[in-house]
Amino acid sequence: MKASIVRVLLLGACLFAGAVSPAYAADPRGVSANGGTVGIVSGGVEGTYVRIAADLAAVLDDGDALRVLPMLGKGSVQNLKDIVLLKGIDVGIVQSDVLAYAKRERLLPNLDRRVKFITKLYNEEMHILAAPDVTRIEDLAGRKVNFDVQGSGTHMTASLVFGMLGIKVEPQGNDQSLALEKLRRGEIAAMAYVAGKPTRLFRDLKAGDGLHFLSIPMSASLLDTYLPSRLTSADYEGLIKPGEQVDTVAVGAVMAVYGWERDLERHRKVARFVDAFFGRFDEFLKPPRHPKWKEVNLAADVPGWTRFEPAERWLRQGTAGNEPQPAAQSAAAN
Q1: For 265-291, what is each residue's pLDDT tens digit?
Q2: Ramachandran angles phi, psi of 195, nearest 5°
Q3: Residues 6+ apart with CB under 8 A from 43
C-alpha cells in the first residue's frame, strides 16, 4: 500500500515538475507542438500587457512552427520571478525598473546573467485617480491609497514614487478593479495604476463621477529614474477637459527573456520567436493592433539591462544594411 502511494506521489511530482506524461510521449504531435510554443506572461485583464501579448499571438502564430501562448500575470515583480523559475514561461512583459528593484531587494541571485531583454516596448504612465475631496497629491498624506497587489509593477513603482516625493500614505493591496469600486464608495482616497494610456479600466469614467487624476510634481530624484509624461483629454475625454493636461511620470515596458545558453533548445525556440517578431514587426503598426506599438523603438537601450543575443544580432545586421540572418539559424550554427 505504501509503495503504491509513493509511486502516485512520485508521478504527481514528475508531472508538476514538467516531466513528460505517457500520453505526451506516445504522440509525436505533442513533441512538435511543445517545441514551437512560447509562453508569454503578461498582466491583468484590464491592463495593457495582456493586449500586447494577445497581439503577439495574433500576428506571430504559425501552427506548430511557432505558437505564442499569452498568460495572465500578477505584475512585474512576479513576472520576473516567473521568467526565472517557471518552466512554461519563456518571455515576460515587465517594467524597466523591476530589475534594479529586484537586485536591490536581493529577490533572486545572478539576475544580470539570468534575465535579458528583447526590446523596449513603450512607456507606461502612472495614473493617480483620486476622490473628489483630494485636490493635490500632498493631500494624500496619512490616507489610504491603493498600490495594487503585492509584487505588482504598480505596487513597486508607487512605493518608490511616493517615497521620492516624501508623502507617507497607508498603502492598500487590492487588485485594480476592486480598488476602483472602493474609491467610488469612499473607502480609499486614491488609487495608483501604472499602465499604458489609455487604459481600459478608466476609459468609461466620466467627470460626473467626481473622480479625477492628480498631477505628480517633477523632482530631480524622480527624473533620475522616470520620464516626464502627461495625460490629456485625448487619452481620457471623460475625465480631462480639452486643452487641459495632468503631469505624471512614465516607466518603460520591456520584453524580458531568460538568458538561455546558445546550445539549448529553449534558446533556439526563443530565437525563432525573435526572428518572427523582428521580421514581421510592421504588422504590429496596423489596425487593429494596440496603438502603443507605434511608440516602440526596437533599437532603444534600457539602462541596467543586457539585450538577448539573437535580438542584438538582428539589430546589428539591420544597422549594417545587411539582410538579417535568422537568429535561430545563427544560434544553431554556433
Answers
A1: 999 999 999 999 999 999 999 999 999
A2: -160, 155
A3: 49, 50, 72, 73, 75, 79, 93, 153
How many Cα atoms occupy the beta-carbon half-sphere of 98 within 13 Å? 28
- SS3 for 108? coil
Whose CA is closest to 95, among 113, 112, 117? 117
Per-residue pLDDT at 27: 59
Q: How far apart are CA 55 and CA 270, in angstroms?
A: 17
Between CA 155 and CA 25 the distance in angstroms is 42
Bridge partner list, 192: 128
The torsion angles phi and psi of 160, rounded to 5 degrees, stand at -70, -45
Strand duo 91-95 + 227-232: pairing: unpaired
Alpha helices in the chain (DSSP H): 2-16, 22-26, 28-35, 48-60, 76-85, 98-105, 111-114, 153-165, 176-184, 200-203, 220-223, 265-279, 309-319, 327-333
Q: Residue 228 domain-assigned?
A: yes
227 and 259 co-located in one domain: no
- Mean pLDDT on 124-143: 97
Look at residue 316 and tell me if it is in a domain.
Answer: yes
Q: Are 19 and 49 in contact (CB under 8 A)?
A: no
Assess whether 128 and 233 both reside in one domain: yes
Amino acid at 7: R
State the pLDDT at residue 36. Answer: 83
Whether 40 is in a domain gets the answer: yes
Is 237 in the same domain as 305?
no
Cα(85)–Cα(67) distance, integer angstroms: 21
Q: Is 157 exposed, middle or buried (0-12, 13-18, 19+ CB in 10 A)?
A: buried
Last residue of a domain, one of 231, 252, 273: 252
pLDDT tens per residue, range 16-55: 344 444 454 555 555 556 678 999 999 888 788 999 999 9
Q: CA-to-CA distance for 181 and 187, rounded, in angstroms?
A: 9
Distance CA 66, CA 57 (A): 9
Final residue before a domain boundary, out of 237, 252, 267? 252
Residues 59 and 199 in one domain: no
